[in-house]
Amino acid sequence: GKEVLSEKVENKMTREDYIREIDEAVAAGNRAMHALDEADSCIRSARNWGIFDILGGGMLSSFIKHERLGKAQDLVQKAGNELQRFNRELSDIQLQNNVQIKCDGLTQAIDIFFDNVLVDVLVQSKIADLQRQMALSKEQVRSTLAHLEQLKREA
Fold first, then answer.
1. What pLDDT was estimated at residue 116?
2. Rounded to two decimals, what is the model's pTM?
3. DSSP class per residue in 84-124
4. How far is CA 132 from CA 61, 121, 124, 136, 141, in A?
5. Minimal CA–CA distance to 52: which of 37, 68, 40?
6. Among 101, 55, 97, which Cα is nearest to 78's?
7. What is the pLDDT of residue 26?
8. Nearest 10 degrees: CA dihedral of 13, 140, 82, 42?
9. Pseudo-torsion of CA 50, 53, 58, 61, nearest 10°?
10. Which of 24, 49, 65, 108 lies most in the core, judged by the most C-beta atoms within 10 Å?
11. What is the pLDDT of residue 99?
12. Which helix (H) or strand (E) holds 55?
């Protein structure tokens, strides 16, 4: 606690400045978490439609699945932007946390054109990989937010 504050004072940052920087980082982290939650929800929906597609849902389920995947890709990109902002805010208080996510093109054209179980299973595998990546990112953000709250209490 006191060591952190004395270090900040040595760096010409007042306690109030330090707390304000922590608050800004927390706000950015909360925005990132909200964006991750939105993307995760959309990915979960795409996965559910993908399961229906594998079970013989046909062209309509493929179309809906890919509509959700397209939206999920946009939301993952938005979450990635929020994570970059979060990382910049963390660097203001000398904390490192490079949480990143990426969403490759999820083989939409191939899946709709070659609508078969093998391709559907491949797409489901990519969705599952993305879900694991989202869960890891969310846990890293949650952990960092908890650390920030602790730093604020100790300031």
1. 63
2. 0.77
3. HHHHHHHHHTT-------------HHHHHHT-SHHHHHHHH
4. 23, 16, 12, 6, 14
5. 68
6. 101
7. 96
8. -160
9. -30
10. 65
11. 64
12. none
What would you report as the CA-atom Rg of the chain, rounded to the nearest whole angstrom? 20
Which residue's entry shows tokens 């908890």?
Answer: 146
Joined together, the tokens standing for residue 52 give: 């229906």
Residue showing tokens 């013989």 = 56
Q: Tell me the two tokens of residue 152.
A: 């604020």
Per-residue model confidence (pLDDT) at position 32? 94
List per-block mean pLDDT (blocks of 10 residues) for the chain, which spans 155 residues.
Answer: 49 84 95 94 89 83 85 88 90 73 47 58 83 89 92 89
Residue with tokens 């229906």: 52
Which two tokens mark 87? 């990382």
